[in-house]
Amino acid sequence: MHNKSFTADGAATVVGGRNVGDIYFAYGPGEHYIDTDVLALGPAAAEVSTMFDAYWNSASAYPAAMILPDAPDGLTRLQVAVATAKASDQAQPYFAAITQSVLHGPLSAGQEVIEWVKVTLIAADPLKGLGQQDAGGLLGERLTALLTDQATRPAASLDLISAYFVRP
Asked: E strands within the chain?
């Protein structure tokens, strides 16, 4: 599965392009990748949870043990890498940027910084990986249907959050 979501109790979810490859956690000089995400709460989070479960339980999903090698010392190596990064002089500008961000102050003070908006979750049919999706089940088809339907098309603007936009 390559879905990009982290959902807690069906009440809050982070979706977008979050990856766990080493280059996404790199710091200091050199090339780094950056991801953008969006936090969704309430019904949208429940929809993401339902969508994830549909993928997780579909014939398109395979157990990680079939694909990934065992890493018995993986957690220890990760903990050492995090401690090393936190203690590094190269990490200090990152920590400074976080504390100077526009969200840090209000979040630290317990202030609400959420922008409440209407959202619509669309996802491709989980069976697309097996070539068995329903008619209209591809993401592009579902997005086109939403954008052309009088009842669901946006009145003024549209913000899309996706891990990838792939053109056929």
From this structure: 5-8, 12-16, 37-41
Say how far apart CA 58 and CA 128 lie, in whole Å: 10
pTM: 0.70
- Can you give the residue ranges of every domain in the chain? 5-68+111-148
Q: 158 phi and psi, to 5 degrees?
A: -145, 125
Question: CA-CA distance, 125 to 146, in Å (whole number)?
Answer: 16
CA distance 76 to 122: 38
Q: What percentage of the chain's residues is helix, strand, coil (to nearest 5)? A: 40, 10, 55
**pLDDT tens-digit series, residues 61-78:** 888 888 888 888 989 998
